[in-house]
């Protein structure tokens, strides 16, 4: 008992000695502030000042011409009662499903299939070709991807309608992105198509780290593919899953380009998202103060998500260490 | 001897040992791959058609004759070489600057372990979290003031900061696991912090840095909202902006748009094929010893 107390004290001493120290022996952490200066100056200029400015604008009346006048909480009160605003956040949840949940699930299955089956049975060349094919939409500028997709799904002379016609299903032809019953679903399908390559590439690189002997040992113990997936694959690429989930969730909350180019939030408000809604207020309705309030609300939501995520990540990492 | 040769021969044979299940999975993956490439296939089919041909037989038909009309029309109308060069140098500079900035930040956070580093990383990540439309008004006013509005340099500066946020997040966790023995050995040799930074940490983390370089280049190349708002002059625009400007242009027909889309993705495609191998080494490869 006294032995454990002793080691505990020892550890405490060690951490006390290490506190305020860098990973370079003899170099105190405080000496490293110098290296943060360029990053901080740039961050202040490009991000912090605009962010604060934007918060200020959200409390003003500003039409872009005459200087802003203080409006108190008017914009924020309007925001709370604005059904379009709430619709836009409800659509954000659909975007998270299309850009985070489904791509990660598909990415997990695809990456382990490519890694397990294609790489081992069909060779590394086949595997890297497969990866390149699924990654392809990620290489497209969002402007180009949207242009092509908008043209495939457009009602007159679109490729999907032509395809339906060709296989005798002409009566199923539809204005896929222009009608409220299908617009959101097809926007989601397009986002899945764009996103799925990102988790695939990152998960595959994570899988290379896993010791192949682990899999062999598990197979010898009679574990099937699914059991190996749960026991070995998932835990070993946990860090990658966190990185992908966080970056994709932020991207889903901020999504703008495809909505702007494909549906303009419509028909009606069926595909409106916060980013597009605030853009409309900023630059089309010239309601800069109100646009700033929407953008600020969105930023707050994103920050909360990020803090919760990184907390969770730290907790999981700590549990794994124990 | 015999067992050794048998084992040697077993390696390629194990490769060919494909079950029905393996083939089923392969076929399913290929079908999925075709769906992924479907838009690209449609682009290829239509980029080399004449407008008359397209109007007569629709988007899925094989072209009757090979035509470069659309390509030539787009090339000359938007002055493609100029747009290409704008995209290359802005994305290239952003990639380099953002990697350097991320290294400085991550050196202080991951190896220097400065106080409150978790909150500093979150603050830097604000660059990633802030919706771009929230930055447009303030940045517009500030850049106009210093004469950089409508200049590609504005894009370089803004995206260096935005991309370095992800870089700092990734790299500081990689540097957090940087082998301590190497740092200790360097200290014994009397290396200063700056020497350790440029002669030890930089070369050892090169694999991770090159992956970041590739990502930053492609991401900046593909950016849309800020370049659209900041580059109003034709001569300063990047490729995606030039292509998207076609949607509003009534004079542009479908085949020209297809040709334009196709030619606009060729540079990134080449870039990706060159750096495939870098990507496959993985974002965390530097972290694992």
From TrEMBL, chain A:
Gene3D superfamilies: MalF N-terminal region-like, MetI-like. It is found in: Cell membrane. PROSITE patterns: ABC_TM1 (PS50928). Belongs to the binding-protein-dependent transport system permease family. This is ABC transporter permease. The chain crosses the membrane at residues 32-53, 93-115, 135-153, 183-203, 241-261, 288-309. Keywords: Cell membrane, Membrane, Transmembrane, Transmembrane helix, Transport. It is a multi-pass membrane protein. It comes from Bifidobacterium felsineum. GO terms for biological process: transmembrane transport. GO terms for cellular component: plasma membrane. Residues 89-311 form the ABC transmembrane type-1 domain. Its main location: membrane. InterPro entries: ABC_transporter_permease (IPR051393), MalF_N (IPR035277), MetI-like (IPR000515), MetI-like_sf (IPR035906). Residues 1-23 are annotated as: Disordered. Residues 10-21 have a biased composition (Basic and acidic residues).
From TrEMBL, chain B:
It is a multi-pass membrane protein. PANTHER family: ABC TRANSPORTER PERMEASE PROTEIN MG189-RELATED-RELATED, SN-GLYCEROL-3-PHOSPHATE TRANSPORT SYSTEM PERMEASE PROTEIN UGPE. GO terms for cellular component: plasma membrane. This is ABC transporter permease. One of its GO terms (biological process) is transmembrane transport. It is found in: Cell membrane. Residues 84-275 form the ABC transmembrane type-1 domain. The lineage of its organism: Bacteria, Bacillati, Actinomycetota, Actinomycetes, Bifidobacteriales.
